[in-house]
Amino acid sequence: MSVPSQTIAPLGESIQLDTTTLTPFPNSRKIYVEGSRPDIRVPLREIQLSDTHLSTGQTETNSPITVYDSSGVYSDPSVTIDVCQGIPPVRAQWIIERGDTEVLPQVSSNYGKNRLNDPRLENLRFAHQIRTPRKAKAGHNVTQLHYARKGIITPEMEYIAIRENQRLETLRETDLKNRHTGESFGASIPKIITPEFVRAEVARGRAIIPANINHTELEPMIIGRNFLVKVNANIGNSATTSSIAEEVEKMVWSIRWGADTVMDLSTGKHIHETREWILRNSPVPIGTVPIYQALEKVDGKAEELTWEIFRDTLIEQAEQGVDYFTIHAGVRLAYVPLTAKRLTGIVSRGGAIMAKWCLAHHQENFLYTHFADICEIMQAYDISFSLGDGLRPGSIADANDAAQFAELETLGELTRYAWQQDVQVMVEGPGHVPLHLIKENMDKQLKECDEAPFYTLGPLTTDIAPGYDHITSGIGAAMIGWYGCAMLCYVTPKEHLGLPNKHDVREGIVTYKIAAHAADLAKGHPSAQIRDNAMSKARFEFRWEDQFSLGLDPLKAREFHDETLPKESAKVAHFCSMCGPHFCSMKITQDVRDYAQNKGIADVKIAVETGLAEKAEEFTTQGAVIYR
Amino acid sequence: MSVPSQTIAPLGESIQLDTTTLTPFPNSRKIYVEGSRPDIRVPLREIQLSDTHLSTGQTETNSPITVYDSSGVYSDPSVTIDVCQGIPPVRAQWIIERGDTEVLPQVSSNYGKNRLNDPRLENLRFAHQIRTPRKAKAGHNVTQLHYARKGIITPEMEYIAIRENQRLETLRETDLKNRHTGESFGASIPKIITPEFVRAEVARGRAIIPANINHTELEPMIIGRNFLVKVNANIGNSATTSSIAEEVEKMVWSIRWGADTVMDLSTGKHIHETREWILRNSPVPIGTVPIYQALEKVDGKAEELTWEIFRDTLIEQAEQGVDYFTIHAGVRLAYVPLTAKRLTGIVSRGGAIMAKWCLAHHQENFLYTHFADICEIMQAYDISFSLGDGLRPGSIADANDAAQFAELETLGELTRYAWQQDVQVMVEGPGHVPLHLIKENMDKQLKECDEAPFYTLGPLTTDIAPGYDHITSGIGAAMIGWYGCAMLCYVTPKEHLGLPNKHDVREGIVTYKIAAHAADLAKGHPSAQIRDNAMSKARFEFRWEDQFSLGLDPLKAREFHDETLPKESAKVAHFCSMCGPHFCSMKITQDVRDYAQNKGIADVKIAVETGLAEKAEEFTTQGAVIYR
């Protein structure tokens, strides 16, 4: 994949966003709920539903359903999108107002300076302008955790409370009643999320708000076991494929399908410039694994990595606005030999790099020994830790072994240290785990890391289905989400085989939205079942359009329906293709219900009992069923 | 879809089996393991693996892996397939030898006679010849359960023991050692399955062998919690679409991807003839829901159904060779009003039909009152019950409600009655259930039905993803399989939207094979992890071809890999597309391992500890990590 290199314009122009990402889904519109100040405008998606036609001939209105919306301004037709300008900096004023940050005279990292001054990169840089970065004033800590502990409710926190509630307060009591209470394994999700609840959870360390002060374009979101389960999508070029334009398109495509955060895992050329384009256009938190880029800077030779190169990379990325860093500080020298007898050794890229470095130098992991220094950088830009599980199992065989759990204990230690520095932390988890060992992972993480949010990849529940690893892992993801995992890192059908294309990304994200929602339902999240109930009612009433609208992927639902019954008239027909026009169980059920209603349920019951009484003797003499 | 109507030949000729179904997967070959007599020849699939190239320059052989094979003779290149002849009747001699059955002078059902004598159907009938059916001699019971209780080990039982073992006995002790012991929730799967164990489980009612004496083409298989979890695929035409040829192709296609049984749920035209073609070509058990056909016979008017029509339908299908019948005898009159307040009423087709009948007549369900009569028919042909869950929930909202559990209690009662008559029974289950309510379903079924095999549809764990219901339900299927469910009825991506095409069937079955295998792994099935381990080893060693071969869908795995790296050379390259040639975590891990091996792990440990000791003071003075 070559990148255009003649003029400045072409790169921005070459970014062609899919029209799907630039329009609301059918029968949906973007709404904004305003908070306590006019610049807190929280985007949600309102799904309009059609009326129910009762058998009496009357109609009944179905209230619109409001759902969480991660798709950003792209799906707002009133906003003109220009990727060369980036999206609106919704947080800019909040950060300025806090008065604890300052604009730097220039970027601080050596690498950032070099890239900025390299004339050969002119045509690759973010087209609008590289903003001069902002940093905490000397002696200040600008993390949301720091504010939370001081009792301050930030606009970010209020924004999140509105966002998580999904206008639950507008629903009738009856809408909320018809739901299962769930089993939350110790999570405690309140009926209504208040800004104070958000603050308290962040202060407790049980939730994080990944929100770098240099990522002003961010629509704030939260990750924690007492909130909706979130989904991360990975993008990123590699040495073999992909370009900057493709990565920006992938990011916008990912949030369209519901990704709550996006990790840029680029390892190829122009990582720095790619990241700038992504951040300026991303309404969701962007995470990275800085060691990947650091490794590029030493030509892929792990043993040549140094703290200085790594530190410069952290600052370079911090000043661009990366919201969370995966840091593999738990891969301690002493744990590396524990992996030697594994079936699949170390499969985490970051883990493998650090293991190699440790052995090459016979020294403790420099990410561990410099953890305090890293925390200082995190404080100054409000970057959240995503403590990497570099020793996660790479196969069913290696699940829950000594190496994995030794690292997890160290991650707990690092969590507590970061908390002492008021730095936000989540903890990464596996990987490949059979069903019966998943809960042990979650329970141990909750214990060792004192409820810091868990963020897992899958886990895959079997290794024998390459080409379907979104499914092998979606099973594990649903379960660990139920048990308490706060964010699920998606897996695409191409996992272990190749780089995902757009189709794969969509499949992977929707699969993980299913897992996250199934977990929310099982935990008894107060708003989760509303959408299921609306779908089920639409299904029962043959409101086909509403079934499409309410689905996680309205376009595919419609496309699949139309494959069998393409005619428009079929979308209002009281039968579906499975049964045909003369025979449909749902129609028969409606008859049963009408019957019960006409007679009154009590009457039917009496009739039934009378019938049974009459039949009783017959049964026993016939011997149809012997006992009871 | 019109069916050819000019000559006899065209229908058979119009059945075009996909070439995929007529060839073994790459690097796989069909093997037959012979039992105690030469006509017990159990098909298995042997996957050949390539050598491991060690870093020392030596090579290491990887033993072939033997796996279960449901694909029948279609994937045996030495067998010439002629759908007009049907496949070889492997069981014919065993049935004759038992001497307890007789060939009838003609088919017994009125409907069967009429169809046979209708000249307009000449061109639709199974091309070879309609075999005259066989039935138990008067006073005889020919069920596998009856034999089992008499202490007889049938050839079917021996066949199954060999099949379930997958040549486990040929493996080295070390291959078997590296596995998780699992959590089986009370299942007890022996290390080696013996014919006596099969007999004992059948005698106990804990497993069934669906094997109609008129389905001589059957390769026997078993359904029970102490055996491999099985998968069912549904096929069947409807009034709106599909032809006989398509249904035969779907059946062959289904078993190619791993379906262990196939249900023919046809509701359209020519159900009788379609079934004949399917049975004569099917090596797997065929299940049906006879009430569907009975309903066709009364032009879709449920209230016009009678026991006589239903009985004739049972006999008609019994004499064709159907192996198990879904019978909705648990939909009792008294339970119907319990569904009136549901969000989605009665969604089971069979359940809706019987509910309508009950209310129309104010009478108890005739399937319940005639249950003893039905048992008599089941005994005479060895048809297994699949007790239908006509009141299963059709939505998350309705899961685990009074109607569902009332019916389940009745299914338990019916199970015990059928067992008294030496008739084999499995019990059907939901449906739509949130994660946290799945186990209650399984536990209650085990209790109420005294461990009779459970056979569930999914369950779907959320309702909001039409177009992805293979995934919403695959999650639930894996979990209920782990908890003890014996067979999982697949769901395709088209569920709730339309009729599945070939692509959907493949997606649905592979998803369910994943769920079944994940369940086997978690239960600690002795042979389950062998394939995962072989895959993981191949993955670690960059043996790409072996990864494809070992997967549930070798063709898709290869296709996905080649999308990114199509060159043949890439298949032996020590890197994959995710990381590129200069950077690969697995390669680094190998370096780590080589290092550890060169130094000796003990040495490395000492080095590590020495290193740590040296570093200890430094850590504390630096204050990198404060406590411990």
Automatic annotation (TrEMBL), chains A, B:
For this entry, the protein name equals Phosphomethylpyrimidine synthase
Q: Pfam families per the record?
A: ThiC-associated, ThiC_Rad_SAM
Question: What GO cellular component term, any one, is given?
Answer: cytosol
How does this polypeptide assemble, per the annotation?
Homodimer.
The UniProt similarity line reads: Belongs to the ThiC family.
Superkingdom classification of source: Bacteria
UniProt-listed InterPro entries = ThiC, ThiC-associated_dom, ThiC/Bza_core_dom, ThiC/BzaA/B
What Gene3D superfamilies does its record include? 6.10.250.620, Radical SAM ThiC family, central domain
The record's remark on the cofactor is: Binds 1 [4Fe-4S] cluster per subunit. The cluster is coordinated with 3 cysteines and an exchangeable S-adenosyl-L-methionine.
Q: What does this protein do?
A: Catalyzes the synthesis of the hydroxymethylpyrimidine phosphate (HMP-P) moiety of thiamine from aminoimidazole ribotide (AIR) in a radical S-adenosyl-L-methionine (SAM)-dependent reaction.
Group of enzyme by EC: lyase
Q: Which GO terms describe its biological process?
A: thiamine biosynthetic process; thiamine diphosphate biosynthetic process
Q: Which reaction does it catalyse?
A: 5-amino-1-(5-phospho-beta-D-ribosyl)imidazole + S-adenosyl-L-methionine = 4-amino-2-methyl-5-(phosphooxymethyl)pyrimidine + CO + 5'-deoxyadenosine + formate + L-methionine + 3 H(+)
- Can you name the source organism? Beggiatoa alba B18LD
- GN (gene name): thiC
Sites binding Zn(2+) sit at H432, H496
- Enzyme Commission (EC) number: 4.1.99.17
Tell me which residues make up the ThiC-associated domain. 24-102
The residues that hold substrate are: N234, M263, Y292, H328, S348, R349, G350, D389, G390, L391, R392, E428, Y455
Q: Which GO terms describe its molecular function?
A: 4 iron, 4 sulfur cluster binding; phosphomethylpyrimidine synthase activity; zinc ion binding
Binding of [4Fe-4S] cluster occurs at C576, C579, C584
Q: Which pathway does the record list?
A: Cofactor biosynthesis; thiamine diphosphate biosynthesis
Cofactor(s) demanded: [4Fe-4S] cluster
